[in-house]
Amino acid sequence: MTRRFAVAAALAALLALAACKPASPPPAPARPALWEVSGPDGQKGWLFGTIHALDKPRAWRTPAFGAALAASDRVVVEVADVAHPERIAPVFTALATSPGHPPLDQRVPPALRPALADTLTRAGATGTDFSRVETWGAALMLARAATPNDAVDAGIDRAVLAAAGTKTVTELEGAERQLAIFDSLPEDAQRALLAATLEGGDDDARLAEAWARGDMDAIARETTTGLMANPALRDALLTRRNAAWSGAIAALMRAGRHPFVAVGGAHMAGPGGLPARLAAAGFTVRRVQ
Prior knowledge:
Mean pLDDT: 86
Order of helices and strands: HEEEEHEHHHHHEHHHHHEHE
Largest sheet: 6 strands, mixed
């Protein structure tokens, strides 16, 4: 699994705002996955897989995306305050800080200590700066430090919220509930997140290409290997959340709402993803892009 994929949702909540820069050369086209969901009593909704940070801008606003968003009556996202990181910071601080933690270099395998030292140097920090930071919080903070601002600018979640205009925005979790998931992880799972943040590789670029192609088979493979092979992480970060979210989306549709649901692409993948779960709940789910 991509080294920062497991923390992508919470990372999206922590990313600082930055003005989108004009792309040069023109961004490559992308066709991320999009589904139409309908029910027997005229219910209608859409599922759109996002990616929280991209290595480069993409031309992803297709006619199918525009039509689906226009036909919806609300946008449903993981965290609405992704556009207001100043509101999230106090929540993160309250959850991620507590006394009595070992030095940060003792919370990673010896082989990763040089990478940790390099990441800390690039972030302008030292290991002692994290003496009161829980391991999952350190993982998120270092992941943010390792993410170029251009990748933040090109992320999709804030762009979807901006495109929503005056539509109602509904949260599936919100920052506090989302960060609490990480806070509740056992220490060994938190250390696995921290180690993954420090590991090198081209997994992030591979995931971005799969997202741009709408290749759900490739994304599904990313959600069953590496960190997601850890039962505690997979259960906390995918299985339980997908179950809760699909129930919330179904309830909105049965109440007569027409939601445009935009969440991380991993939550759409495989037999446990939102399209499959909504189909199992009796809705007709049709891939439209």
